[in-house]
Amino acid sequence: MSYHQTTLTLPAYARGIHIITPKVEEAISQLLPHSNKVGLVHLFLLHTSASLAINENADPDVRIDTEDWLNKIAPEDQPEYRHTLEGSDDLPAHLKSMMLGVSLTIPLVDGELGLGMWQGVYLCEHRNLPEYGGQRKLVITVNT
Questions:
Q1: Is 19 domain-assigned?
Q2: What average pLDDT does this structure show over 38-63?
Q3: Strand runs labelled E in the chain
Q4: Is residue 142 part of a domain?
């Protein structure tokens, strides 16, 4: 059993949900030069105001509807929030990150992410730009 690891720096994304599957796949292909690998891929986002998820990779309405739903569950501008040092989106971003999580484990099948036909890896950016958010770092660990 061996481990391979890299840190992928993702570009700054606007608030919302973004498919990052191709970026993750590219990082894995550079990390594992031979494609006949079986194992596990672990993704860990080094941030508390963004999150990771796996969901629909075809219809962008899923991402838009999910963002709208998250904003209803954890709305901005609530007078009971204490943690507002960085703006009204600060605490809601942390709450959304806790709900969705910052890590994923995905099977590695023949050297590729073992995702279903309609599945994609999401980066969920919960902060407003340009003040906050920005580049995000994703640790990719592959166990083969």
A1: yes
A2: 97
A3: 3-10, 16-19, 39-45, 50-56, 103-109, 112-113, 119-125, 136-143
A4: no
Q: Residue 43: which of 34, 53, 55 has the closest Cα?
A: 53
pLDDT of residue 132 exceeding 90, the answer is no
| Residue range of the domain that includes 80 | 11-35+47-136
CB 66 within 8 A of CB 55: yes
User: Letter for the amino acid at 74?
Assistant: A
Q: How many Å apart are CA 127 and CA 99, to the nearest integer?
A: 15
Q: Quote the pTM value.
A: 0.95
Domain count, the chain: 1
Q: Give me 82's structure tokens.
A: 């204490």
65 phi and psi angles, rounded to 5 deg: -65, -40
The token duo for 94 is 């942390």
